[in-house]
Amino acid sequence: MKSRGAIEFAKTYFKDSINSIVEVGVLAGGHAFSMKKILNPKQIYLVDSYKPILDSIETIHTQEEYDGWYNQATLAFKSSDNHKFIIESSQQAASVVPNDLDLVYLDASHDELNVIKDIACWYPKLRVGGILCGHDYGPVNGVRLAVTRMFNNVQTQEVDWWIIKTKEGY
Ligand SMILES: C[S@@+](CC[C@H](N)C(=O)[O-])C[C@H]1O[C@@H](n2cnc3c(N)ncnc32)[C@H](O)[C@@H]1O
Q: In the predicted model, is pLDDT for residue 162 greater than 90?
């Protein structure tokens, strides 16, 4: 499987020395597992509410569907011993995950307001030199609106976007 643009960039940028990474929005774990395989971090945090987020425009699924995706994700990671699932909303999870992260991949809510909230709570968790990135950067959509509102140095490839944190604060 071809890896996504931000992950390819991170692989070259970090040169195999990665401590901790996060995926926010894991679903069945396919992309998180691929990220772990490619970047080989010491620790990966897997953040997903696995239940509807009521202030989001995302499609609401049944709890059975969310439970099914969680089961698939735990199966995908069953042979791994350096991952941790955090079954919380993105913002609650940010208060639990340690600071000084190398990379955070945002793929949870996709509306402008929630992506801004995700950026606001995860960007401060990164170390200087870390990468904030995500998926579904469309021609005209909430992800693009949020990301370009928050940063003026966004790099993209296909529908992935990323920025490097160059200093504390924005
Ligand atoms: C697009 S899917 C993630 C797809 C996954 N990254 C992949 O590429 O296979 C979005 C996921 O984010 C979760 N999600 C959406 N909004 C969230 C929020 N605010 N906090 C935590 N999880 C959220 C949903 O439960 C869903 O599993």
A: yes
In CATH terms, 5-164 corresponds, of 3.40.50.150, 3.90.420.10, 3.40.50.2000, 1.20.1070.10, to 3.40.50.150
Q: Give the burial string for 10-32 (b: 16+ CB within 10 Å, else e).
A: bbeebeeebebbbbbbbbbbebb
pLDDT the model gives residue 53: 80
Sequence length of the chain is: 170
Pocket test for ligand 1, best of 48, 71, 122 (most atoms within 8 A of CB): 48
Lining ligand 1 with CB less than 6 A are: 23, 25-27, 30-31, 47-50, 53, 56, 58, 69, 89-90, 107-109
On the question of pLDDT at 59 being above 80, the answer is no
Report pTM. 0.97
